[in-house]
Amino acid sequence: MVVQVEFNYNSLTPLERAKVSDTKDIIPFSRAYSTNLEEEYICTALKSGKTSGNGPYLARAESLLNEIHKSSKVMLTTSGTHALEMCALLTEFGENDEFILPSFTFSSTANAFLLFGGKPVFVDIRKDTLCIDEQLIEETITERTKAIVAVHYAGVACEMSTINDIAKRHGLFVIEDNAHGLFASYNGQTLGTIGDLSALSFHDTKNITCGEGGALILNNETYYHRAEILREKGTNRNSFLRGEIDKYSWVDIGSSYIPSEINAAYLLAQLERRFEIQSRRHAIWSAYHVHLTDWARSNDIRLPIVPPQCDHPAHMYYMIMPSQQAREAFMAFMKERRIQTAFHYQSLASSKKGRAINPSNKQCAVSDQMSDCLVRLPLHLHVSDDDLSYIIDCILQFSTRNVCA
Ligand SMILES: Cc1ncc(COP(=O)(O)O)c(C=O)c1O
Q: Mean per-residue pLDDT for 237-251?
């Protein structure tokens, strides 16, 4: 989809361009969007006098997410990180149980399991999708390996057929870290419904947000009952609320992973407006992709690759620059024009904590390269058509040739 280009930066003289740069408001890399529904739902929740977890907004938001995830059961949580922690609890991670994860991911993918004694084993990523390289997984499996945590980077799926096959042969859990991939699919199957368990994030950088929030997706009924208990501080409160028992008590370990009605109300409004949100995000993503293709080729820059078996959710638009200097020069060039861009993860295997835990972990060269060379462009609903034309026009003025020379 191509956006209408109403503002032609190219036609301006250098003096006019300087003026535009000086007067234009900064275009932020990320800014949470709200429709006119969030305020209404949040006010209703406030006025109800019942703002803790397990209220009607939580039930409605979960029911909508259940529809999206079809046969799976969705439980809202206080964050994506906490949904991952619940995965670690449900799979009973213990001292020295190993889990395999990509090096190019957020700290939460590792911390959630590490907290319960798990030991991360980092694997490098594929050059095309930047997801875990499934060909490198098997050689890292030991008798202590318990799970593979697959991160769908930018909502583009990992090679899940191969990953599930490896897991089946070695008796491992598959956990999908689907923080980026709500609405995306792999071979027609919704992401989050392919592994045993999965986690979504509703942090305010995500397509659908409630400030801070997440969801746990359970693809196996055997987890349902315990997951309810873990989320409610280790009590059987949910059974009590359903009238199955006459009082509730402490029955297991657990924590406080249930979001308030305020967050659930915010989330429900966003979910109900998902079509408008997603359609605009796809328009922006496609505009970048269409207008930057030739320029990228002639500047030795790599744009995102979406394999045919994957439907992506327009979560992120990134570019891989030919060198770290080129990336720094590009970000400075955009900043001068009042456009914020952002790099992404610092490879976990090379991080201070990653090296301390696992000094013998092989170097993850592709992850290291992405830490140095990847840059992300503004992609949110406050990017107007004018902003978009301006961003694209500015990018087209940039050349890597001067930097690389
Ligand atoms: C891949 C990945 N996993 C997990 C998380 C954690 O999600 P949250 O911020 O909702 O805790 C993030 C956060 O952006 C992420 O990028």
A: 96
* Residue whose C-alpha is closest to residue 35's, from 267, 285, 259, 299: 267
Is the pTM higher than 0.90? The answer reads yes
pLDDT of residue 24: 65
263 lines ligand 1 (CB under 6 A): no
pLDDT tens profile 289-314: 999 999 999 999 999 999 999 999 99
Task: Give 300 Cα–ligand 1 centroid separation in angstroms.
Answer: 30
Tell whether ligand 1 has an atom less than 6 A from the beta carbon of residue 164.
no
384 Cβ contact list (under 8 Å, min separation 6): none
- CATH T-level assignment (fold) for domain 37-272: Aspartate Aminotransferase; domain 2 (3.40.640)
Please work out whether the CB of residue 201 comes within 6 Å of at least one atom of ligand 1: yes
Q: What atom of ligand 1 comes closest to residue 201's alpha carbon?
A: 10
Q: Which one of 203, 316, 344 would you pick to mutate in the ligand 1 pocket, going by the greatest count of ligand atoms within 8 A of its CB?
A: 203
Domain definitions of the chain by residue range: 9-30+274-341+377-404, 37-272
CATH architecture of 9-30+274-341+377-404: Alpha-Beta Complex (3.90)
Residue 6 pLDDT class (50, 70, 90 cuts): very low
Q: What percent of the chain has pLDDT over 90?
A: 90
Please report the sign of the dihedral spanned by the C-alpha atoms of residue 32, residue 381, residue 104, residue 69: positive
**Cβ of 105 less than 6 Å from ligand 1:** yes
CB 395 within 8 A of CB 295: yes
